[in-house]
């Protein structure tokens, strides 16, 4: 993918490197470019260096090498100029348990020297409203469930209109309804023109929400680009559900479907990249061979396929 | 043209004043180009222009927030409650001991118990001096050690530190706010002891003219002023430990470890100060001149040791304050 011009890049990392004291390389020469207005998914197994990268981008830790720029300005030097325009949720929420949700937000807003104290109460109220915490605003945060804490963290990121939101696993701890709400909130914010940098271990979530994605493993960037292009890099799959799995696998192989695998009564295989067979033909052949087909279909290549193709391993395996 | 009708691109340059974190209802793409950090031109005139630019006073918000948070913690209130209970216990003990109206401790010269305790039955105001003399060696500094040790490390272990820093609080500013809050706690703790002692003293014993250490008698009002000055002097005695605790607090991500280390250092220093063979290092230990506050009860006031104490506390504040700053501004926040 062609890197966009610098002014349209809200997050830019060049050769970003961090080595921890033990000598372990957490992030290794990372080049990252997040275009303005995108919803950028940041993917990688646990321990791949995502959070370390986010911490370097936000100026919490000093890069060991390379450079990071946020909204066009160097980090961590320009932190005080840049960070008021950035909202962040880093490695889970961390409210003061002895303060109410509202007081937590008042404190974080007071910590920003560029936030107007005269509009503070109103902005806090709106942020709480936006994440659906108004009813619990006066409850002590220690009484919040993880999902409510997560919402409170999001509210803190939304205290002011931001140009960039950095959200580290924003749906962690939320029930399905809460996840859906957060996803629609992210889409809404992106619709307002906010760039969203979203790290997640949920591939389908990235696929549903993100326009762009980057994949990290073992501290290195494997790929980045528009989600559609990444998924297109992986091949589509053909899936057959049948009691006659052995026969089905044989027929699929004859039609050029590679590496058919059998799980239970389901046979899946990758369609060949060039000149794939017509699924109708394959189905007819299956029936001719006496295979009793319960279900038959092609599956579009998912980001997960792309990920497996890139790393050669399942997503949940730590690097 | 009302504000609400302004197109999006004119409202996004500096949006802190708006009170509307984005308008979620309508999906809306701004035509705004990448901006160079300059506020967009404003057609609303002066008042809005003024609202766009952050006032230098806004930076004080963090200091106020820090004070509020410090004094709203249950732990802070518990420490103050314990400190307030000490004069009550001392007062009741003296009252019970001298129930027949005689002076406590064999006419006050027995050498037992804290300084001034023999005078308490004659004048309740002396309970203030007694209580401060009783709490200064350990109770007061322990409370300060807990609050100072937890100040940065506690935020780190709770994870709130990273959110303050991306707010962005600014590391130097946050450290200054923390130190300010610790100093405020030093004063609050000392005043808690003094006020509690004054109340208990007034309740259980007569108040009246004060006989100073130098033998002169001054009116009660003068005595009260001296009591206030003594409370301030005691609070100032705690500054060195406060800076030391703040430094320890920047070294670790565990609030408990920082508190324990600070209190441990206090005990160690107190022990070192009690060993006569280590005379040579005594002038450099922060509690060395702690009891100099009694010199405020002389007429004229004996300033030498008092100023010595202030200089020593200032030196500790400078050394450990700088060390805390150097450590905190260069540190990776990994929790």
UniProtKB/TrEMBL annotation, chain A:
GO terms for molecular function: ATP binding; ATP hydrolysis activity. InterPro entries: AAA+_ATPase, ABC_transporter-like_ATP-bd, ABC_transporter-like_CS, P-loop_NTPase. Residues 11-243 form the ABC transporter domain. Belongs to the ABC transporter superfamily. This is ABC-2 type transport system ATP-binding protein. Keywords: ATP-binding, Nucleotide-binding, Transport. It comes from the Bacteria.
From TrEMBL, chain B:
The keyword Secreted does not apply. Residues 1-13, 28-52 have a biased composition (Basic and acidic residues). Keywords: Membrane, Transmembrane, Transmembrane helix. One of its GO terms (cellular component) is plasma membrane. This is ABC-2 type transport system permease protein. GO terms for molecular function: ABC-type transporter activity. Residues 1-54 are annotated as: Disordered. The chain crosses the membrane at residues 74-94, 125-148, 181-205, 225-248, 255-275. The keyword Transmembrane helix applies.
